[in-house]
C-alpha cells in the first residue's frame, strides 16, 4: 500500500494526516503548536510508522517558497515565538527522504478546493480565509501561485468605508484588509466577537464592503474562475449575498463576471481543504 502524508502547519495547531493512494484519510492528528522541537517530535512520532511515498506541507507564513533562495523551505519573519527562521522543510527532509511539496496553508487549501471541492471543473481559483487573520491562496492554470514569494492577499490596501475610523488591528498597515476586516477587527469594531453578533447587525454591511473590495481587486489582477471563502468569519452565511451585492456595485459594470452565486462561494471541503490539498500536492510531487 502506498501512503501519502499531509501537514497543515498552523500557528495554533498542526494537523497531520496519512492517506492511502486513493487519498482516503486513514489517520489524522491535531497537535497544538508548541516550540519547533516539541512540535516536530510529535509530528515524527505520528509519521514514523508509515512508509510514505511523498508528503505535502501547507504552512503558516510568511514562508520562503523561492526555489532559488538559500532559505527555501523556511518559515521566515513570523511573529510566532520560536518559529522565526525555522527550516521546517529541511527538518522534514532530514527525517524522511521522500519528495515533499511545500507551499502556504492557503495555497494548499485553494488546491484542495479546486480539485475536489467548490472549485471542481475550474483551473483557476482563489481561496480566501477570513479568521484571526486574512490570507489568500491562488491556483492559476492548475498550479499554485508562487514565484519570488507567495501572495499576501490579506494585506492589500483598501479604501475605507465612509466615516470608518477604526484603528487598524494590523501592526504593519493602517489601511489593510486584515487590519479592518479580520475577526479581531470585527471584534474591535463592535466590542463583541463575531460569533456572538446577530446576523442582522449593521457591521456585516461594513464587513461585506471590505471583503467585496478585496475580491474586486483580486478579480482585476488574476481574473479567477471562482473565489472560495472560508474561515471563522465566513460562517456568517448572510455575508455571502451582502458581498455579492457590494461587489456588483463596486465593479461598476466595468468587467463582466461569472454569475455571482457561482463566482463567490463557500468551501465544500470544510476543515479538510488544506489537508486534501497537501495530499494532492504530495501525490503530484511524487509523480
Ligand atoms: P484561525 O483563523 O485562527 O485559524 P478561525 O478561522 O476560526 O481560526 O478564525 C477565528 C476568528 O474568527 C476569531 O476572530 C473569531 O471571533 C471569528 N469567528 C469564529 N467563528 C465565527 C462566526 N461563527 N462568526 C463570526 N466570526 C467568527
Ligand atoms: Zn496589514
TrEMBL record:
- Listed CDD domains: ASKHA_NBD_ROK_BsFRK-like
**Would the keyword Metal-binding be found if you checked this record's keyword annotation?**
yes
User: Quick check: keyword Transferase in the entry?
Assistant: yes
Q: Which InterPro entries match?
A: ATPase_NBD, Carb_Metab_Reg_Kinase/Isom, ROK
Q: Which UniProt keywords apply?
A: ATP-binding, Carbohydrate metabolism, Kinase, Magnesium, Metal-binding, Nucleotide-binding, Transferase, Zinc
Query: Which cofactors must be present for this protein to function?
Result: Mg(2+)
Q: Kindly state which reaction or reactions the protein catalyses.
A: D-fructose + ATP = D-fructose 6-phosphate + ADP + H(+)
Where on the tree of life does the source sit, at the highest rank?
Bacteria
Q: What is its EC number?
A: 2.7.1.4
Q: Which Pfam families match?
A: ROK
Query: What GO MF annotations does this protein's record show?
Result: ATP binding; fructokinase activity; metal ion binding
User: Which family, according to UniProt?
Assistant: Belongs to the ROK (NagC/XylR) family.
Q: What is this protein called?
A: Fructokinase
